[in-house]
Each structure stands twice: as C-alpha cells, then as structure tokens.
C-alpha cells in the first residue's frame, strides 16, 4: 500500500492552493482531500510492487514449465506415431 506520508504531502500541496485567509477551511480541506484519496485508492484494489513482482516471477516460471511440458508431449506423440 502507499505510504501515508504521500497522502499527507498531496493534501498539504492541495491545501496550499487555497488563499491564506481560508484558515480553518484549509485544514478541513486537507483532511478531506487526504481521506478521499485514501478511499479512492483503496477502492481501486491496487497491489504493491513486491506482490506484482512475485506474480511476474510465478508467471514466468509457469510459462517455462508449460513450454517444457508441451515439448515433452510433442516428443511422446511423435514416438507414439512411429
């Protein structure tokens, strides 16, 4: 999951777009923006880079095994035809 500091920094940057006179409204806006970003990203059901890399490695291993089994099957079929 994304580090909470990322949300804090983004919310603060958005809050800085408001005029200084906004005062308390600026603080409320930053809190709401942070909560909205977290909620939206949670709904997106994102995976971490580590989980993604594990799945890529697993897929590569599975693909290699499939190719090996296909080659073995082809050899067995050829031997059976002869």
From TrEMBL:
Pfam families: BMFP (PF04380). GO terms for cellular component: cytosol. It comes from the Eukaryota. InterPro entries: UbiK. This is Uncharacterized protein. It comes from Cyprideis torosa.
